[in-house]
Amino acid sequence: MTQAKLIDGNAFSAGLRDEITARVHEIRDGHRITPGLAVVLVGEDPASQVYVRNKNKRAAECGMTSFEHILPADTPERHLLTLIEGLNDDPMVHGILVQLPLPRHIDSQKVIEAIRPDKDVDGFHPWNVGKLAAGGVGLIPCTPLGSMMMLRDHLGSLAGMKAIVVGRSNIVGKPMAHLLIRENCTVTVAHSQTRDLPGEVRAADIVIAAVGKPEMIKGDWIKPGATVIDVGINRVAAEGGKTRLVGDVDFAGAVQVAGAITPVPGGVGPMTIACLLRNTLTAAARLHRLDIPEAHPWN
Ligand SMILES: Nc1nc(=O)c2c([nH]1)NC[C@@H]1CN(c3ccc(C(=O)N[C@@H](CCC(=O)O)C(=O)O)cc3)C=[N+]21
Q1: Domain Tetrahydrofolate dehydrogenase/cyclohydrolase NAD(P)-binding: where (predicted)?
Q2: Which of the four pLDDT bands, split at 50, 70 and 90, describes residue 299?
């Protein structure tokens, strides 16, 4: 059996960031506007701090300004809401991202709804959720957006294909299903109560794995030649007391059967960050009513 083609998220995201950088320089020189991204982290979780720093580093590489707000884990909800109000009104800030999950004493839905929809670069505000569901122009969640860019790049038109989304989260599963519907796929959304998950996956030309369970989707569930997008990023124990990252798909098995597959790391993760920057550029352009191309490059 031939090996699946690897869909290289590192290379794809580097190209996307180059394109974003060129646009950022254009609007800086042409309009004296520098897109600004504010990233808010509540709590001192070291892994989350690494992610936040990585997002800010990538933003700076693209010529954007970034603002980092790291708050203690016991920050009262109203302090966080006050910070968001300030960012909503700050003309230097075009994109706001509040790192999830938040500590349990904070109502994350309330926090999401406090962000101005036109600065909501995660695309989690109900206004953006509604725009995606109803087919309008909003901000699209970064992981589904990055996944769709890779799918369209690899497959061209998705029209008529059977797609399965394994996982129904607000962050990935649901918005991914909407994007696939928009691309004229026949979409199944599977979850913990799905009967015969292997059977459902076997019917699919496109598999989106977004369950957060390490290597749960087995190689022999994959239809030969299918395209597999592995959204999972799970840190698991490895030999010698070390850890390693694995996806939600049993990569070693799936790579023998699939037509193409995204690796972990180096697949969806870097695309998520590139799409965050793309959404920030899009938000800045819309806030200033600049006429630059929109965020759906495949349209
Ligand atoms: N409001 C909000 N928006 C988010 O987008 C968000 C969030 N909260 N909370 C945390 C998760 C996690 N996340 C990742 C993004 C990129 C990589 C990434 O680039 N991963 C690299 C590997 C990184 C490593 O080695 O640890 C890769 O897959 O190649 C990982 C994780 C965004 N998140």
Answers
A1: 141-286
A2: very low
The H-or-E segment that residue 79 falls in is helix 77-89
Residue type, 135: G
Q: Is the ipTM here above 0.95?
A: yes
Q: Of all atoms in ligand 1, which is nearest to the CA of residue 235?
A: 26
Strands 234-237 and 243-246: antiparallel
- Give the whole-angstrom CA distance, residue 42 versus residue 87: 15
Range of the domain at 173: 142-269
Please work out, in degrees rounded to the nearest 5, the angle formed at the alpha carbon of residue 223 by the alpha carbons of 263 and 225. 65
Across 109-123, 190-204, 256-270, 279-293, least confident range: 279-293
Give 1's contacts (C-beta < 8 A, 6+ positions apart).
256, 257
Helix (H, G, I), strand (E, B) or coil at 180: helix
Longest Cα separation, the chain? 57
One-letter amino acid of 246? V
What per-residue confidence (pLDDT) applies to 135?
A: 85
Confirm or reject: Cβ of 247 under 6 Å from ligand 1: no
234: domain CATH number is: 3.40.50.720
Section 134-142 average pLDDT: 93
Is any atom of ligand 1 closer than 6 Å to the C-beta of 234? no
CA-closest residue to ligand 1 atom 3: 99
Residue 214 within any structural domain of the chain: yes
Q: Return d(Cα 71, Cα 273) in angstroms, integer.
A: 22
Q: Which two tokens stand for residue 256?
A: 């023998």
pLDDT at 46: 81
Name the active-site residue from 120, 122, 205, 250: 122
Last residue of a domain, one of 98, 116, 134: 116
In a domain, 293, yes or no: no
